[in-house]
Amino acid sequence: MKLMKVFGLAVVFMFVASTFARAEELKFAYVDLAKLFDQYERTKEYDKVLEGENNKFQEERNKKIEKIRDLQGKAAMLKDDAKVKNDKDIEALKNEILEFDRTKRTDLTKARDEKVREILLEIEKTVSEYAKAQNITFVLNDRVLIYGKDTLNISEPILKTLNDNYAKQAVKK
After folding, report:
1. Domain 25-172 has CATH 3.30.910.20
2. pTM metric for this prediction
3. Distance CA 173, CA 42 (A)
4. C-beta atoms surrounding 159 within 10 Å
5. How far is it, in rounded angstroms, from Cα 126 to Cα 132?
């Protein structure tokens, strides 16, 4: 019986020792995904495009609101039957603005989400390629870490690669 316990402990000890020996061969790194996303030139450029689209939306919306204000201002000078028609027009314009807001905001949100997804996939691909080239076994997101040595942070070379590749693509266009 004692021999079985000793043998069992020896097997467990050898398994643990071999696991630690293998762990020495593993290479870890981590990235600051938020930094990569925020400082990537493609993200910055798309934010400008999105801001422009949002400004166009606001201009269109403001024109519609101004039209309602004009109709409301004229309402006091109208006769009863014209006032009723004017009120119906105002109500229709208000409903139109609500639908316009909903549609445009939904479209802008979908476009933004799609672009964010594309950018994150590109970052993921670049991190994977870098990890393979550097023989890194695991790359973690810094948000899941409690602590990581700065020497294991590969965010800067990844960011440089992303921005260099993006600059090359921009030159080709």
Report:
1. yes
2. 0.72
3. 14
4. 21
5. 10
